[in-house]
Design goal:
Elements (H helix, E strand, L loop, with lengths): L18 H12 L1 H4 L27 H18 L4 H4 L25 H32 L5 H5 L5 H10 L2 H17 L2 H8 L6 H29 L7 H9 L1
């Protein structure tokens, strides 16, 4: 699963990295343009996929899609919940948030040091983990209740069709849930590197930092879930789930 990438159908590019520094991050994500070229849900009538109908919470027709959502999410959060989960993920690693690169906001030269920025990026990836641990149960709960009006379309809709539908249903819920948890973790840790970075920015608070990090963590989470979904679609038998295996044989 780790070699798969997600196209950015997320909350947008929140990276502040110059082209030279960010190249590895975005070229890595760019690999998805191959295997996951169909990652964005582009189906006939896709705007109605989240409506009511045959795929309500109690519908057997939607069971394979819910299993796909659940298994993909469980695998993603099992990885991202590790202490270095974001940092070691080829798809979810968080780039330097734009907050730390806006012209005119820096009061000292510390953020111009590549060595310092590299260390800061690593620390920010670590602080994303508490956010992922809060986000996991919310995603799994939504996977069990999101309306799926046409499960068959989702099953044939591309490598990340189920992830796309799930994310649309959740909207900004993960970001909102992660902000206070990330803020708490930052305040408790009193990390020297992060404190220096925040102090070097005019008018920036810990809450601002937590918000910026939550936006990037949100993207990373959905990249990871989407990569897990794509891997399952490639080899459903690997899950050992007879329902999923049968569903993809039919589709």
């Amino acid at each position: 699963m780790k070699e798969l990438m997600m196209v950015n159908w997320g909350t947008g590019d929140n990276s502040a990295e110059p082209a030279g520094e960010a190249g590895s991050d975005w070229s890595r994500r760019g690999v998805l343009m191959g295997l996951l070229a169909t990652g964005v849900l582009m189906l006939p009538g896709c705007s109605t996929l989240a409506g009511s109908g045959a795929g309500g919470p109690g519908s057997a027709n939607a069971d394979p899609v819910r299993r796909l959502m659940r298994t993909s999410s469980e695998r993603a959060f099992a990885w991202l919940g590790q202490p270095e989960g974001f940092w070691t993920s080829p798809v979810a690693r968080i780039p330097m948030p734009v907050l730390f690169g806006r012209p005119g906001r820096t009061t000292t030269g510390v953020l111009k040091s590549k060595a310092f920025r590299d260390k800061l990026q690593y620390q920010l990836n670590l602080f994303a983990t508490p956010g992922a641990r809060v986000a996991g149960p919310l995603v799994l709960k939504t996977a069990q209740s999101v309306p799926i009006s046409n499960p068959a379309e989702v099953l044939v809709g591309g490598n990340t069709a189920a992830t796309t539908l799930l994310r649309r249903a959740m909207g900004p819920a993960l970001v909102n849930a992660m902000i206070p948890e990330i803020e708490r973790a930052i305040k408790e840790a009193q990390d020297t590197t992060l404190n220096r970075a925040i102090a070097a920015l005019k008018g920036v608070t810990v809450q601002d930092t937590a918000h910026a990090l939550a936006l990037d963590a949100d993207n990373g989470i959905w990249y990871e879930i989407g990569a897990a979904e794509a891997a399952i679609r490639q080899d459903p038998a690997e899950t050992g789930d007879a329902v999923l295996i049968g569903a993809f044989k039919k589709s």
